[in-house]
Predict the structure of ATP-dependent 6-phosphofructokinase.
Amino acid sequence: MTLELDDLRVRSLGECRYDSPFAEMLATKRTSPHYVHEDDRVLVDDTVSILLSRGVSIDELPSLETAGPRRKIYFDPAATNVGIVTCGGLCPGLNDVIRGIVQELTEHYHVAHIYGFRNGYAGLTRRHRERVVELDLHAVRDINNDGGTILGSSRGDQDPEDMVDTLVELGIHVLFVIGGDGSMRGAMKLTKEIDARGLDIAVVGVPKTIDNDLPFTDQSFGFQTAFAQATEFIASVFVESQAAENGVGIVKLMGRHSGFIACYAALSNNDADFVLIPEVPFVLDGPNGVLRRVEDHVRRHGQVVVVVAEGAGQDLLEQEGRTTDASGNTKLGDIGLFLKQKITDHLTAVDLPPTVRYLDPSYAIRSVAANAYDSVYCVRLAHAAVHAGMAGRTETVVVRWRRRFVHVPMELITSHRNQVDPDGDLWMSVLEATGQPATFGA
Ligand SMILES: Nc1ncnc2c1ncn2[C@@H]1O[C@H](COP(=O)(O)OP(=O)(O)O)[C@@H](O)[C@H]1O
Ligand SMILES: O=P(O)(O)OC[C@H]1O[C@](O)(COP(=O)(O)O)[C@@H](O)[C@@H]1O
Ligand SMILES: [Mg+2]
């Protein structure tokens, strides 16, 4: 991917003139293996050959602004009002992020007010303005123990003018948007309207996706919790299929365009024999098609476990009448039920009448509370987001990239999808673990 330094430069509302509450703590800090100074930058690339292929001097290499507290900040904390909104599908850790933001703003920055908007962008519109809640330490005390989001969420377009009216009415200086690619596109429409009116409001994003489909982030928060949940379902169908004659276990997992959950869940306990993901097309019929491979497996081992991501094999399904959800996301055909039928029909036809155990855990993997690892990740993202907002960064998201917390322009995070690379080492691990062929088909 071609990347200029300018593509990676994040926007600031202006000069930072206020002392940060962290100024003293930062006074003597310099870049070390464990800390990146605010004036230093983090490289985008991490292999010698990629760096060399850029063909530019070290200071021109694509690099990212480091996240974290600044010595000077843009907003005067005592006069700062903050808003928080969670949008799109649920994800483990949303409450941890809300809690982390509120705690950091309250305990360290002592901001004036923190408002929570209810049910996504809808909560910012005139119609729902009266549902805004004030957030304090008490309101977020133990919310990390619960899945979901205390603020609620939603899909569906809202009018940016209407939403900015609300920000103005409440005197909001920093809005934190916790959401996925759609939410970040929505946030950019907000900043456009904010700019058009010449307002001094920062919009900072915390990227959320259980599909792990956002770029410039090692792994999105909640992903680890989600795939760990998914693992349990694969283990169940494995046990069931093992106990049955010609046992077939099929698990359909979330992942619209990216098969990360399927890959990680399958690798975690190694019970899966076939993993089907959107990034790797497959055919069902013919000597090298999925059905014959599944049949061979059942003949040799007496059972088979198939893990399929919801976005896999969409080309095999009837496309007619394909609709979108309220946010414009294409509604997918049900590849899980389709495969179940096809495998059942095929095995029956070749005299291996199967016992099929089909599970679609669906929301069960994303509605749970974050595990300890994700909780740590969430609170650190929350801290980074607060520092970015108080320093006047806008149209910016905070991410962890190659283990460093950094700032990325919103535009870049929505520029493309993070997907499993069929030539990459993750997919290679899946092929090694399952023993499935690299391709199905001719
Ligand atoms: N291109 C867009 N412009 C403005 N708002 C958008 C856009 N795409 C999505 N949104 C809004 O962002 C919110 C979340 O988007 P959605 O796609 O549902 O989830 P996610 O943020 O998880 O991808 C919804 O309210 C949706 O209407
Ligand atoms: O919540 P809905 O509308 O049923 O949509 C389900 C979709 O949401 C996801 O969980 C996540 O999608 P977003 O992060 O884009 O909201 C997908 O894996 C899944 O396809
Ligand atoms: Mg999305």
About this structure: The chain has a mean pLDDT of 96. Residues 87-89, 120-121, 154-157, 179-183, 185-186, 189, 327-329 surround adenosine-5'-diphosphate (ligand 1) (CB under 6 Å). Residues 223-243 form the longest helix (21 residues).
